[in-house]
Every structure is written in structure tokens, then in C-alpha cells.
Amino acid sequence: MLTNGIYNDLGFRVGDKILFLVEQQPGWTMNIIIRALMYLAQVYHNYFEGQDADLYGSKKVYVPEPEIYIIYTGERVSRPEMISFSKEFFKGKECSIEVKVKVIYDGKGNDIISQYVAFTKVYNEQVKRYGRSLEAVTETIRICKDRNLLREFLESREKEVVSIMMTLFDEERIMRTHIVSEKKETARKAAENMLKTGKMSAEEIAGYFTELSVEDVREIEKGLLQTI
After folding, report:
1. For FRET with 69, which of 107, 132, 185, 214 sits at 20 to 30 Å CA-CA?
2. 3-class SS at 4?
């Protein structure tokens, strides 16, 4: 099973196929095809490593057949059954890479798709209430079991579900920290260049960057003076 980043996107093997179930999307975007392509490459990479496959050998390796699905729960007049990489990004022109994503709308009755959509909605509600925490995860599982949503799966694999969801929280936290760090470093370099011109004060420069305080800019200025 693959869980990807901060999304509830899942990839797993069923027999001789690799299946992707992409998080329900209330807002329509064709960029979901790009995500699917990236997941496919990642899963195949992990699969071949796990199989110790010799990709440089003369013998053709076994490749599981991929199936990619997106669950869409928003309101949209046009409801295509399938979206295509070449059609959406290259106007249908034949290209070296093709990805086709089957679109599922809600589900029927109380089938597994409907239960998955309901599970995701409960999860989002609990995250809003408790933040990305263990309490949000355990409450999601408790509520869904009470409502008979994915109950059999959650009862048999509750510890695994908790572990996966907490791992996703940790990955999101790490990614957000990295993004903030990258933005601050970019701002520091820009502030340094502005200071080198000698035309603006630390206070004026700090006004251009939400990532930097006046004290940060003065510290950068102090460092520049020490190199002179």
C-alpha cells in the first residue's frame, strides 16, 4: 500500500494489477492526472526495487497493470467517465507518455466508494475540530465504526490505519517546515542584495518580506559588515 504526502491518495496491488484511488475532489482540476503519473512512477520504482528486478538485463521484467481512479464529489455539468493526459495537456496529440484516469462520482448506495467518501468527510471534520492530531484520527475511526463506514476494515486494521494517518501528519509537518525554511532563505538572499546597494535601511527592507523581521535584516547587515 502507498500513501502519498498530505493527500488521502492510495496505491495498492490487487492480484496482477496496481490500483490507485485518488482522494475525493470537491473542486475539479486536470492536474490530478499529473499527480497520478507521479504516483505511478513512484509505485513502479518501489515495486521493482522490492522484486530485485534487473532492469538492465535482456529478460523482460513483469509489470503489474495499472488502474487509476479519482473520486469526484463536487457539482459539475460535464461528467466524463475518463480523463486523458494527452487529451488535456497536448490537445489529443500522440505523445510518448499516456495516462488515463477513470472518474467515479460518489458511489452507489452503501458501496465501498460511498463509504470511502463518507470516511474522508468525517476525517476532514475531525481535523478542523482537533487539528492534525492523534485525537482527530481516533475520533474519525470511532465515528466511522459507529456509522458502519468501512467498519470491518477499521476493526481489523485499526492500528495500521492510525499509524498510516499519523505518518501522513508527520510528513505534512516536515514539508511545511521545509517550505517555510526555503522561503526564508530566499528572502534572506534578496535582503542581502538589497543591503549591498546601500540605498535602503533595515526597516525599509524588512517591509518587503513577511518572512523577515527588522532584527533579521539587521543580523544580515551585521554579517555583511564583518566580511568587509
Report:
1. 132
2. coil
